[in-house]
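Example (one chain per record):
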Amino acid sequence: MLKLSEIQRPIEGELTIFEDKFKESMRSSVPLLDRITHYIVKRKGKQMRPMFVFFSAGSCGDINDATHRGAALVELLHTATLVHDDVVDNANVRRGFFSVNALWKNKIAVVVGDFLLAKGMQLSLKNDDFVMLRIVSDAVQQIIEGELLQLEKARRMDIDESVYFEVIRQKTASLIASCCACGAASAGADKATIRQMHRFGEKVGIAFQIKDDLFDFGIDDVGKPLGNDIKEKKLTLPLIHALKQVGKPEKRRIINLVKNHNDDPQKVSEVIAFVKANGGMEYATSQMLAYQQDAFDILTDFPTSEHRHGLEQLVRYTTERNK
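Predicted structure:
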C-alpha cells in the first residue's frame, strides 16, 4: 500500500515551510490561547488537506506564498471543525490524544474553534485572498448544513441513498474540494479550472468518506470500534443498501436495533452481520471505486507532472488506506 511519506516527497520542502507558517497563523497574545494552539499543532494529523492544496497548485501552475496561505486557511477551518465536533460529540479523545474540550472544558473549546475560524478569515483578508476566502466560506456553509441535515434525518431514521450522498458531499467532500480549488486559485488558474479542481476534490472526498464508512463494518483492524456509526445511530451506505434488499418487517427490525439497542454489542454485531449478508459492503465498495474513477478521469485534462501524479497517488491512498 502507498505510504503518505512517499506521496509527500515532491512537496516535502513545502510541507516543512507550511508547518512553520501554520504555527505562525495561530499565534495569539493571550497566553491560554497560545498554550492550546501549541497543543493542537503538536498533535496534528496526516496533513492530507495541505497536500491537496500544494499538489493542486502545482498541477495548475506554480506553488507560491498564496498557496501556503490557502493551505493554512483550509487547515485552520478543518482544525476549528474538529474542535467543535469534539464538543458536539462529547468526545474526550482525538487521534489518541485528549481533546481540547477534555482538557479545557466545552466553553473554552468552542471559543478556540471560533478563534481559529477568525484567524483564517483574518489571514485571507490581510492578503486580499478574496477568491480563496469565498471558496472556503462556501465550504463552511456546506459543512454546517450537512451536519444539520444529518442530525434532522437521523432523528427520524429516514436517510435514503440520495440524502446520504448529499450529507457526505457537504460534510466531508466540500472541504477536500475547497483544498483543490484553493490550490488552483493560488496558482492563478481561471474560473473554469478552479471549478474543475473543485469537482475533482468533491469526487475524492465522497470516495474518502465511503471508505471511512466501510471501516465501521470491520474490513480492517484500524483501531476504530466496530459498529461505531451504528452506536451513534448513523445510517451509512452499506446499511442503507442492505435495508433496500429486504422486506418491511426485516427492515423495521434492523432499524429498531439501530435506534433502540445500539449500546448492546450483540445487537450491533447482528446489524453488522445483516449488512454483510445483504451485499452492503460490496455495493459501497463499488460506489467508492466509481467516484475514484471519476476523479481520475477529471485529472486527465491536466498536463502530466509530478504534482498531478501526486494527486493521483492521493486518490489511490483514499481508497487503499487501512485507517
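Caption: The beta strands are 93-94, 97-98.
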